[in-house]
Amino acid sequence: MPHGPSPDTRYPIPGITRTGFLKPFITRPNIHVGDYTYYDDPRGPEHFEDNVLYHFEFTGDRLIIGKYCSIATGVRFIMNGGNHPTTWLTTYPFPIFGEGWETATPPTWPVRGDTVVGNDVWIGYGATIMPGVTIGDGAIVATASVVARDVPPYAIVGGNPAGVIRSRFDDATVARLLALRWWDWEPERVARGVTALCGGDVAELERLAPR
Questions:
Q1: pLDDT, tens only, 109-131
Q2: Domain 19-168, what architecture?
């Protein structure tokens, strides 16, 4: 029974080391990546975490990326550790440097929550994802976009700041795809549905769904 490559394979394309399933390369406990999500980088997927910036453990925020996502070279995630208070008279973070400046440490630093990327999301070359953003299932983020607010499922967004260009499908089709949640199927069922997934007939995919 065909089931596709193992999600634990680091380099699933024979002879190609710039593209890898991302999950096996993650070392930080506050980054969670789903099966089959891949990252492409000429330096190799082991450099993905270099692009997750200002991700300090004391901040407590997580980067959560779903299954079957496609992440292009140079995509950067700006995490909450890069936030500065904006209600002070200064934006300079005096308290973090100590030596007497820590007396101004606020009860909490500005935190916008976890950054969440859904399933089957394509993030194009050089895009930047800002702290606390949620990108919905099936969305596409255009090259060099700066995503500063949440992205609806199956939306195509682009620009700086990124705005919705259009939806990939009509509302009814989006609802059917979200109900199917094919990315949660066992690998053997996904393998049986590859032709439907790579086509345009959602009814064909629905016929393969678990009952």
A1: 889 999 999 999 999 999 999 99
A2: 3 Solenoid (2.160)
Percent of the chain scoring above 70 in pLDDT:
100
Question: CB–CB of 29/52 below 8 Å?
Answer: no
Q: Which residues of the chain have pLDDT under 70?
A: 1
Best CA proximity match to 8, nearest among 26, 27, 35, 32 = 35
> Alpha-carbon distance 210 to 191, whole Å?
14
Domain ranges across the chain: 19-168, 169-211
SS3 183: helix
Tokens 């630093």: give the residue: 109
Buried b or exposed e, range 79-95, using 16+ CB within 10 angstroms: bbbebebeeeeeeebee
Query: Any catalytic annotation for residue 32?
Result: no
Q: Which of 32, 47, 55, 84 is catalytic?
A: 84
- DSSP three-state, residue 97: helix
Q: Are 161 and 149 in contact (CB under 8 A)?
A: yes
Closest by CA to 63, choosing from 138, 145, 130, is: 130
Residues contacting residue 115 through CB under 8 Å, at least 6 positions apart: 61, 62, 63, 64, 77, 79, 129, 131, 132, 133, 134
pLDDT digits (tens, 9 = 90+) for 69-86: 999 999 999 999 999 989
